[in-house]
Amino acid sequence: MITKSFAIIGDPISHSLSPVLHNYWFKKYRVKANYSLLNIDENNLDQVIKRLRNRELNGINVTLPYKQKIIKFLDQLINDAKITNSVNTIYLDENDVLVGENTDVFGMQAAYLKEIVNGENKKALVMGAGGVSPSVIFSLLKSKIKNISIINRTYEKSLFLKKKFNFLNVLKWDTLEKEIKNFDIIINATSLGLMNRKDFDFSFKNTKENLIYIDTIYNPLETKTLKFLKEKKVRTFNGLDMFMYQGKKSFYLWNKINPEIDNELINLLKLRLK
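^ thats the sequence. predicted structure below, dont judge the formating
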């Protein structure tokens, strides 16, 4: 008998493998629970909140485009969510306080940034100014990378992020092809390439030879841009590790169990992405 219910909300949501991830761990650790996809219109966010407060839902993950929009419904932001003003994990605590946390920062650091040495000497570029971008920026800061630029198709969104992180260098989208040669780390925090849809429409030929390229997208495992850079012998990372680590922290917050990322799980996820 299933006694707990969890979900991920977003729009679109069909690309998400969060149910595969969490249901695998529920089975492994014998937690009587289920995790599902909820494609939610913005006008119905309050209905999801009602289900959380009534404990019909025991916790939710939040993906685009609601990581900021959900905040007004919450009672409290904690830890990284408070700093980034971006939420991807929600639960009702023992005092009936609806809490928003950000596990993307942990996911980014645990998956990729722990390997970067001499971060203070690196120049990083964050492409995109949406829901995951504040988490990416704060992750870089935590890794002592302070020379950070941001570029977004809508320039005003980058300026909005600069209000929060005033040290950011803001670049214009039409300068990207010229500017990419200046960076040691480039992180794609846009949705370009998601589900094999439209990718970047300019060349990444002029990157540094020792570039580190990180894509927050995991579906597909290789976007066209990542594949191109990989063939150039650039050190590349897709979004799968970040996805698993952010999920690991969410799972712990909800269940007080620290789940293992084992080979069986990795293979299961990769199989779903073929």
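The longest strand covers residues 4-10.
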